[in-house]
Amino acid sequence: MLSAGIVGLPNVGKSTLFNAVTRTQKATAANYPFCTIDPNMGVVTVPDPRLDALSKLSSSKKVIPTAIEFVDIAGLVSGASQGEGLGNQFLSHIREVDAIVQVVRCFDDSDIHHVSGSIDPVRDIEVITTELVLADMASLQKRQGRLQKEARSGNKEAKAELALVEKLLPHLDSGKPANTFDFSDDELAISRGLFLLTSKPVLFACNVGEADLAHLAAEVDSMQEEEGGLPADDVEVHEAARYVKAVQDYVRTHLATEAVVISAQIESELVELSPEDAADYLKDLGVASSGVASLIRSVYHLLGLRTYLTTGEQETRAWTIRAGDKAPTAAGVIHSDFERGFIAAETIHFDDLIQLGSYARAREAGKLRIEGKDYVVKDGDVIEFRFNV
To answer: End-to-end distance of the chain based on CA atoms, in angstroms?
Structure first.
């Protein structure tokens, strides 16, 4: 199972968010730095409203969603790459996850200490990015010496790896993470063996206060596009919206990724409520839906994962595949015999099946397709495999 590590500076809401995402109280959330030392881990089901719709269509007895793992990692401080704070532990734990969710504090609260003494989310992003870049540079410089010796002896693999290392070092030295480097296909394959921290996909979570969440969407969307991504001085905008907009602009232009908005405090309170009470609570706050569901789905896609669906009287189920997987590989997720004896996949997209209302109507409309071994399965495909072993 692939995993996403929740990281950030101390006291930005990492453990609170972890508890909300995993619907547990595993992680200690306290108002002091390094309250998390050993990483907390939790398996999280991926919210997918398509399952309920398919279950009703098939009168399924049970519904089984797919899942990913989240890991709550100790807070990082400036100097972590040199062992400051819990830096060595932080870096070793982050090497073990497949993607990173960086929590960025976008709320003011004088009762909650910020390790840098003030709220500046872009500065916080740069602190963590710098530490990860420095750790990668140290790793590559150490590797470079060994590769130079092997390359001189005529080792072709070492020469290719050394050439990539010598391209990556100036890129990292300019402060840019490895995941913004323009790899060729061959270089990308080589880079996987370098195990760079900054090659992992990253999603940013703007953690806002409870009172801020309801105002944010409208305010951020209505901001005028001025230099620096901030609105004109005569436009009155909530401070949290300024923080969020600054983060979204920065990560898009500097890190080629995205940022989502969430209130970890609100989400942690929803954990204690029934789904009905949680919906009423959000409605009272003027918020349409839980930010946790959106965050989990975003992380799922960040990991390069996609979902296909099966449905019948016994169960409706979501199955996890990687983007680009072909039909036989997808069949093998259910059972290796399905892949080994793959014949074909009877396929229809979820949207078409729900619109038509039944498999019978789908057949009449010509929407059910028979796909072969070269078919690339799409997210939302509803499939029944044909196989023979």
So the answer is: 27
